[in-house]
DNA sequence: ACAGTTTAGAACCATTCAGTACAAAACAAG
DNA sequence: CTTGTTTTGTACTGAATGGTTCTAAACTGT
């Protein structure tokens, strides 16, 4: 019994995720954010609260979409070659400039916004668990190093690549390197 | 034949480095910056130009102080145990919240400020070269992996740890992990 | 048709932003 | 002491910031 909203919540949220992902939290001002979301101020503040709340929701949306997709990919991966399963995490995709939203959030807000840090850590934990799953399914426990340690190495390499990639300073040929440590 | 300045340039620059390192570029406003540098606006704009120029100079100062110190440490390290030489790079120092200025600059400005990205990449290159020096001096070329690839792995692990550490989500016991891949 | 809600969009708000202008102060050279 | 030059700190500026308010429109249930 009221006027229906003219925008789709998820579409707007995806726009928020895109712009925050690409520009970061502080570098995204309200006009940027509103344009990316396709909203005007009235609708935005009523539906999303404020900029910070929207950023936190964008992190959740990243979790639900991007992280979940990556986790699925890892879970469905062929269980005979860990290198081949994990290599996609290190493959250039042409979007290095925006990096990884988790990594961006950790670096920009990790030390000052506890909730953002918690969300980022939770997503990193999901990635780590999926990597660990690949390693155990591929029988990577045989060497001297525990699969858990190997998963930590992989996760840190991944975030290192995402961070360095934003400045264009990360190398590209990861297959040999990954294979050498699996 | 003029009034001498009352502040020391290097001291002020170190203050700028500290605050930019801790808070990042955008999150540091001019009052923050001026207080950290111990200057008022007049002196600041005359001596340092503007905020961006000061940030770039702060990166250079980080290179000249922090990076150089780390590189020296690696260069002077005992040439018989690569793990022991590189472990300090991964040791907690109680200042995880500020992370690594190089990593912070890469993630915050790498994709939008070419000069900041170049400086960050140059510093990362210096770290990589020093790591590579440790590896070759310690005879790490024997395995199947080239020292160059191992240096890249180490560098990416380092930046990954710095990024994750800002959100408090990086694990701590690196000795076994490093030893397992050297 | 009407009443009751919620939307959308623009006008508006105080605050903060980076940067400038300027006048007083502090020195050195003569 | 005077002159010339630079530093310093305050006052100021216009633009941009995130956020609020208000009006009119759009819709639903009765």
UniProtKB/TrEMBL annotation, chains A, B:
It comes from the Bacteria. GO terms for molecular function: DNA binding. This is TetR family transcriptional regulator. InterPro entries: Homeodomain-like_sf, HTH_TetR, Tet_transcr_reg_TetR-rel_C_sf. It comes from Roseobacter cerasinus. Coiled coil: none annotated. Keywords: DNA-binding, Transcription, Transcription regulation. Residues 6-66 form the HTH tetR-type domain. PANTHER family: TRANSCRIPTIONAL REGULATORY PROTEIN (PTHR47506:SF10). Residues 29-48 bind DNA. It holds the Pfam family TetR_N. Transmembrane segments: none annotated.
């Amino acid at each position: 019994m009221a006027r229906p909203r003219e925008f789709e919540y998820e579409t707007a949220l995806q726009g928020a995720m895109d712009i925050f992902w690409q520009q970061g939290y502080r570098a995204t001002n309200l006009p940027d954010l509103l344009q990316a979301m396709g909203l005007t101020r009235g609708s935005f503040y009523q539906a999303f609260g404020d900029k910070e709340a929207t950023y936190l929701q964008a992190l959740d949306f990243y979790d639900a979409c991007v992280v979940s997709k990556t986790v699925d990919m890892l879970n469905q991966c062929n269980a005979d070659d860990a290198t081949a399963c994990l290599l996609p995490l290190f493959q250039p995709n042409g979007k290095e400039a925006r990096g990884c939203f988790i990594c961006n959030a950790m670096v920009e807000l990790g030390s000052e916004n506890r909730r953002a840090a918690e969300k980022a850590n939770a997503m990193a934990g999901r990635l780590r668990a999926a990597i660990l799953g690949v390693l155990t399914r591929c029988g990577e426990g045989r060497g001297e190093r525990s699969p858990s340690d190997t998963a930590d190495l992989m996760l840190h390499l991944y975030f290192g690549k995402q961070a360095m990639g934003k400045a264009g300073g990360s190398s590209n040929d990861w297959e040999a390197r990954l294979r050498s440590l699996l």
